[in-house]
Amino acid sequence: MSILLVEPFYGGSHKQLVDLLQEELADCVLHTLPAKKWHWRARTAAVHFMQAIPASTAYRVIFSSSVLNLAELIALRPDLAPLRKVLYFHENQLVYPVRKCQERDFQFGYNQILSCLVADVVLFNSSFNMESFLSSIPTFLKLMPDHRPAGLDALIRRKCRIYYFPLRFPDVSREHDKDPELFLTTLLKLKEEGLSFQVSVLGETFTEVPDVFSGAREELAARVLHWGFLSSREQYLEVLCQADVVVSTARHEFFGVAMLEAVHCGCYPLCPKALVYPEIFPAEYLYSTPEQLRKRLRDFCRRPDRLRRHRVKVGVTPLPDGPHTHYGGARRSIRDWRM
């Protein structure tokens, strides 16, 4: 029981990662909170884990996602301070899109910076995630009225590594940052053109479902194969294997687990030429504008035979510097952050 796995938001990719680590590592113990009320988890989880984690001299490593304010937990539990502290970023709050600027809570991003300063190793699921976080720190700290710290990005960078996400099969979220409006609007325009297609919209949502979903479901009713959350992993995989194309319209994505898993099941990917996608997908699978996306899908509707003969070529672009781990495995890098 030398590795302490701590996950304040135990759902989706967060759950997938710590479950995999628990399977891979025999000497670990997992402490979690349910994947509800993300903002409250970020604000208050440290106090919960202060009480929930029993004292033990066996601990050697603590591994947590960046939802946890690691600095608070270590301050509340000084017995954990000597452990090797590993922080994993599924996403970062410095560039997370919000609907209104005034909605941003400065403390969320600030907590992540503090956690990095306390951590010994900081892992990111992509180069895009890491660079967008580090490069945003100086600008983010300018929100402070005075006495702004300098050089924190350089201090944190020394600890950073890329650890591509190990692939399993979670569900696709329908959050506003995935821009479902663009996706569904594109499908409705294809329908108006009289093109033939079928659609599956999968996944759970942790916030309010965007209004566009209810109207689009009614208008696309005859073309809908599946709509909503599938509780069975086998059902989810079966739907993916039946599909020809998987589309991302995300405005916020630091890795894109669901896209890669759909590709693994045989889907042709169409992704924005932005965010993390150029790091993983060749140019032929990227689009720059909504018009380009609609044109690609229109062509696929007219010539599905070409699409089905295509063999998808996807791989992670090698990074020019710094250690990283391919998304297909876990063991090879675990020994690095346990040292």
CATH class of the largest domain: Alpha Beta
Could you list the spans in which at least 5 consecutive residues all have pLDDT below 50? Answer: 167-177, 316-335
Give the distance, in angstroms, between the N- and C-terminal Cα atoms: 16 Å
Give the fraction of residues assigned to helices. Answer: 40-55%
Largest sheet: 7 strands, parallel
CATH fold name of the largest domain? Rossmann fold
Q: Count helical runs.
A: 14
How confident is the prediction overall: mean pLDDT? 82
Annotated CATH architecture of the largest domain:
3-Layer(aba) Sandwich
Based on CA inertia axes, which overall geometry fits?
A: elongated
Order of helices and strands: EHEHEHEHEHHEHEHEHEHEHEHHEH
**Protein structure class:** alpha/beta
Beta-strand content bin: 15-25%
How are the secondary structure elements laid out?
Elements: E1 3-10, H1 12-24, E2 28-34, H2 38-52, E3 61-65, H3 70-76, E4 84-89, H4 106-118, E5 121-124, H5 127-141, H6 152-157, E6 160-163, H7 180-192, E7 199-202, H8 212-219, E8 224-228, H9 233-242, E9 245-247, H10 257-264, E10 268-272, H11 277-280, E11 286-287, H12 290-302, H13 304-309, E12 324-325, H14 331-338
Parallel strand pairs: 1-2, 1-3, 3-4, 4-5, 5-6, 6-12, 7-8, 9-10, 10-11
How would you sum up this structure, described in words?
With 339 residues, the protein is of the alpha/beta class. It has 14 helices and twelve strands. It has two domains: 3-164 and 321-338, Rossmann fold, CATH 3.40.50; 176-309, Rossmann fold. It has a seven-stranded parallel sheet, with helices on both faces. It has a three-stranded parallel sheet with strand order 9-10-11. The chain has a two-stranded parallel sheet with strand order 7-8. Strand 4, helix 4 and strand 5 (121-124) form a beta-alpha-beta unit. The protein starts with a strand and ends with a helix. InterPro entries: Glyco_trans_1, GT-like_domain_containing_1, QTMAN_N.
